[in-house]
Amino acid sequence: MKFGHFDDAQKEYVITSPRTPLPWINYLGCENFFSLVSNTCGGYSFYKDAKLLRLTRYRYNNVPLDSNGHYYYIKDGGTVWNPGWMPTKTELDSYECRHGMGYSVFKGSKNGLTAELTDFVPMGSTCEINKLTLKNTTTDTKEFSVFSYVEFCLWNAMDDMTNFQRNFSTGEVEIHADGSQLFHKTEYRERRNHYAVYAVNAPVAGFDTDRDSFLGAYGENSAPAVVTNGESKNSVASGWSPIGSHHLKVTLAPGEEKTYIFVLGYVENPVAEKWIGRPEDGVINRAPADALLAKFDTTEKVDAALADLKAYWNNLLGHFTISSSEEKLDRMVNIWHQYQCMVTFNMSRSASYFESGIGRGMGFRDSCQDLLGFVHLIPDRARERILDIAATQFEDGSAYHQYQPLTKKGNADIGSGFNDDPLWLIAGAAAYIKETGDYSILDEMTPYDSDPSKATDFMEHLRRSFNYTVKHLGPHGLPQIGRADWNDCLNLNCFSEEPGESFQTFGPSEGPNAESVFIAGMFVKYGKDYVEICKHRGLDAEAKEAEEAIHKMEATVLDAGWDGEWFLRAYDHYKNKVGSKECEEGKIFIEPQGFCVIAEIGLKEGNCLKAMQSVEKYLDTKYGIVLLQPAYHRYHVELGEISSYPPGYKENAGIFCHNNPWISIAETVVGRGNRAWQVYTRTCPAYIEDISEIHRTEPYVYSQMIAGKDAPNFGEAKNSWLTGTAAWTFLDVSQYILGIRPDYDGLVIDPCIPSHMDGFTAKREFRGVTYHITVKNPSHVEKGVAKTIVDGKEIAGNMIPAADVTGSDVNVEVIMG
């Protein structure tokens, strides 16, 4: 069942029913100010940091679901309705939500009155714009009221939801311009450097800034007392819960329409001596707010800002485009894959409808992987991100697992000990250098633990990342897993005195012995990149030493990490196998099959193909590949959190979408294009839009998890938007299935496509040059390049050397065979 459709020409998903299985959201904002908005106008806003600078409140576990947002109530006679349906849930005569690139448009109609709400965050400004256009489609004059509504958060979202004894007494507002400008200044008395403004570009009939006054005693968002009564109370919040609400009285002649501009903005006071007491303390400095509001006080200015936003996205997404016989493939590659990658760049795992924005901040591993999907779009910002990540590393090569985006400092509450983290830094750095050819990043002086007094060049950070694995090997010579590897729920350094007793975890100083075959695969894969970087730096002896360590690890994996038909997952602290045919449950895991094959461990010996065949035999389902089989049906203290989930959910045999593309990529390594395509399409949003009633999350972006075959709700997704799946699936489809892959010395064209495809064309901007690529598959093979022609001349191999002339065009023709 569908609840809408794609509009590829406009780069939009059009939702035609407000009753989607879950809220289907969009992200507004490309720089510092962000808003999340659902298809029924639910959501919230923040500046830079979803925890520390939250402008508006959201209640994740509220009932009814998604009932707090930025709302516009229309009171037309005895009927009250919203353009986005919520929160009144009045049945509309028509409804439509269009989620586009950085904007959303809501269209609703009721009783001959239409309302169109355009919602976006403009480039270069710290605000959200709501453009509300009202039109009378009847033959009679209409007189009605519009009430706006936002509920302010008291900035620190965690404190806001917990510290009531203080916060019920701190809310402060100022009212200006006869109520059309409402200033939320809680914290201004204390800090004097920021406040929020909510304004409309028209005279108002009234306003409210106190939530209890607006809603009424025991009131709720679905029927605010002020709206029901048709008159604002001009309330001034003093403590309790400050809000922003404007009352507009509107008269429209037959066929007439009017537009109103509402602006929700974050404003910083530029006064340098903000910490010094002054006579005007407690009164906001309105000058920066006036300047902000003046930029968007007319419809023409707002329309121009929206045009600029659309031009930004058209330009950004134009760096990589394709055209093929597969409409859904083109849609995902040209629009939604890359758009989601940009959202993960901005958010990491911090703020969604499944992440509160309070706890996780930016992940070390997460941000390195996300970079794989956006480095071609914003290489300069990717460079900055890599150095920010590296600055949270410790001097021994380990790293904070998370850091806060506002402070760019590591999260001490989570700490370190995830032994895959260091290798992801090499992965991110290699991706950046391959894309840009910019080796100067290796010379950047970069701190450890965010301490400028402890800094080395970035190359030294990579060296310590590589050597961290070398120095932390277990009894079999495989990498120690630490607290966990990519799978945070696989905690193998756990022990208890007796079965069923509470358990402890070995700390680093206690020498945990649990080993990870997955990290071994990572070490081989990204160790090869480290070798190449060393060679480009002229560090030949170091490159040779690293190569020896990699070869030794390959041999170790084939000796101690191979289980006969697939790669083992790990060894626990007591040297027991995990992910082996010897295990009662959890016999085979997806992660080492993907990464050991991507690293080509045992490729010539046939191990890689056997591993892929085992994945297909034991882990495949119609909705994707499950993480492990059989599922754990009881709790295993020696395995940690993974078996705390019911069978079929999350890491316990759920379809973890993040590592499905690892298998698709691995299938391209063994040359099975049909199978790589099948794996890709089974979780690809555009290809599963028809089962939205089962899948439930948005049909235009990936989710982190789909319930596996052991779960009662097989096929149901959770945790949409903020997932490493976004980057990995784009990497899979662009660099391995389509095969257009940046490398250190140029662009590799090595497609591995399904045999039914005749080929495709692509435009790829790479190091300032535009490559126009035509791939032909006359023999309908799955993999193999018979001929490569560059600007009319055949070249040897399929590596196109990087062009020297910036701004030039290069024409490439590839014949598969």
TrEMBL record:
One Pfam family recorded for the sequence: GH94_b-supersand
GO process annotations (BP): carbohydrate metabolic process
Domain Glycosyl hydrolase 94 catalytic, residue spans: 312-739
Organism domain of life: Bacteria
Ranges of residues in domain Glycosyl hydrolase 94 supersandwich: 11-276
Keywords: Glycosyltransferase, Transferase
Matching Gene3D superfamilies: 1.50.10.10, Glycoside hydrolase, family 65, N-terminal domain, Maltose phosphorylase, domain 3, mpn423 like domain
Keyword Transferase included in the entry's annotation: yes
One MF term in the entry's GO annotations: carbohydrate binding
Protein name: Glycosyl transferase
Source organism per UniProt: Roseburia porci
